[in-house]
């Protein structure tokens, strides 16, 4: 029996949940080291990942510490997915899976993240930045919608790690684009919408989101990462300004 892999994460962001859903799918034992986002640049985590970004893993079975979610996923597949549940053996399919994983890492993740930053979190509203990254989100969705035409999964005839890597960001697209309540931001992309729904219904994802909800609650955070009692962006900006002033006064 393998010893549990330790996963270091801050619960609000999407990237750690790419790794957790893969661990759940493959039935790999793991434990979570959950900590606050404001501590990503501090010890002990900075000693695990000098880049100060989550997730990172420590695998006692191979004595390996690894960061970058895409690299972690590829590692888990190579070392632990002996039954090829989420991957394939053939050279063409293996490289197509890596192609989509790279697209998720270089396309979806950064563009969604920048869109969320400038549209939601950045204190100064910059219309040119908001427009650029909103357009890039829709471009990525268009690529996926085209690729999924007439298909159930990105590669082959089963759900793979490449599909699941896209799920955490697409699952929170409404908060990235600030979609009005009751509207589905994936509705203009029916192939992506159906694909995402197929993955949302998987037990691995449901378990991952139950864990996330528990960890968020422990940190006093709501589902979207805002502290409990904060109801909108104006209140959140005032809260962050107050926190900044308190830190200055402490210094």
UniProtKB/TrEMBL annotation:
> What keywords sit in the KW lines?
Transferase
Q: Kindly provide the name given to this protein in its UniProt entry.
A: glutathione transferase
Species of the source: Paecilomyces lecythidis
Span of domain GST C-terminal: 90-219
EC identifiers of the protein: 2.5.1.18
Q: Which domain of life is it from?
A: Eukaryota
Which CDD domains does its entry note?
GST_C_Ure2p (cd10293), GST_N_Ure2p_like (cd03048)
Q: Name one Pfam family in it.
A: GST_C
Boundaries of every GST N-terminal domain copy: 3-84
A single Gene Ontology molecular function, please?
A: glutathione transferase activity
